[in-house]
Design goal:
The structure is a single chain. By secondary structure, the chain is an alpha/beta fold. The chain is built from eleven helices and six strands. The protein has a single domain, classed as HUPs (Rossmann fold). 44% of the residues lie in helices and 10% in strands. The protein has a six-stranded parallel sheet with strand order 1-6-5-2-3-4, sandwiched between helices. Helix 2 packs across helix 10, helix 3 packs parallel to helix 4 and helix 3 packs across helix 10. The radius of gyration is 18 Å and the shape is globular.
Length: 272
């Protein structure tokens, strides 16, 4: 069985037209920690039920906020996993920060440094090809959390993107809501469809814990997601609670969509 396995109802979740649900239910960091942990436990039970084994997972670890939180909570639940990180050049920020969190948690890692000669049509294919080549068939990925919690710059600056648009006659809050819903409605075509397709191609079973948490997170008030120039507010607060390094919490967003980006390479003289 390959493709997206968890959550079972991922297609139904993605069919929801809005990332906001009534009534609003504020959370604190303990609530968010507990919610993600429950989804990790559900994931582990489902995979054991379907595959009848204790095979290791591969975690796509970019060294960003979302995947680092997953790494910490997976470790805390004693989930058996190896972190996989990909980037163009040894100083690519994803590699630098993924190594930082891997050292902190003392977890096994596979790091793939790509050069300019490596070409793939899709970065998900790059990930799944690497995972399969290393003998893994189960992947945990952090997709959907940016769309739910406000991870893109447009979530705080609604006029900054052409991908989704907001009605300029609306209040800033309602423009932000339109932007949130616009990114949510693009999630399947932009990310989930290619992820599912390439996972099936390489015989990879995928778990998306953040997507599984979407129905609960949709009740989160806008002000706990994005406000002023702050994005993923509650997620960052959870990262602080989990003692993520300050440098990691403040790093620029790259991730799987920017494997070949060199514009934000870490200064070679900087040490961590």
């Amino acid at each position: 069985m390959a493709g997206i396995i968890y959550p079972r109802d991922w297609r139904e979740i993605l069919a929801l037209k809005s990332v906001f649900a009534d009534p609003p239910r504020p959370m604190n960091t303990a609530d968010l920690d507990s919610l993600i942990t429950v989804k990790i436990q559900e994931m582990a039970r489902l995979f054991e039920e379907k595959f009848f084994d204790q095979e290791k997972y591969a975690l796509a670890l970019s060294g960003g906020l979302d995947s680092s939180i997953l790494a910490i909570l997976l470790s805390r639940q004693n989930v058996n996993f190896t972190a996989f990180t990909i980037g163009a050049g040894k100083r690519h920020p994803d590699i630098v920060f993924a190594n930082m969190i891997a050292r902190k948690l003392r977890i096994e890692t596979v790091v793939c440094v790509l050069d300019d000669s490596y070409k793939r049509a899709d970065n998900y294919e790059t990930l799944f090809e690497l995972v399969k080549a290393n003998g893994f068939s189960h992947v945990i990925n952090g997709d959907a959390i940016d769309e739910i919690m406000g991870g893109y710059w447009a979530h705080v600056s609604p006029t900054s993107t052409k991908k989704v648009t907001a009605d300029a006659s609306l209040t800033i809050e309602n423009q932000r809501r339109q932007i949130f819903d616009g990114f949510w409605q693009r999630l399947y075509a932009d990310h989930i469809e290619p992820l599912d397709r390439f996972a099936a191609k390489y015989g990879i079973s995928v778990a998306l814990p953040y997507l599984a948490a979407a129905p609960e997170l949709m009740h989160l008030p806008l002000g706990q997601r994005a406000a002023d120039k702050r994005r993923k507010i509650l997620m960052r607060q959870l990262g602080e609670t989990l003692d993520l390094p300050k440098e990691l919490l403040q790093r620029p967003k790259l991730g799987l969509c920017n494997l070949f980006s060199r514009g934000n390479e870490i200064n070679r003289k900087k040490t961590f």
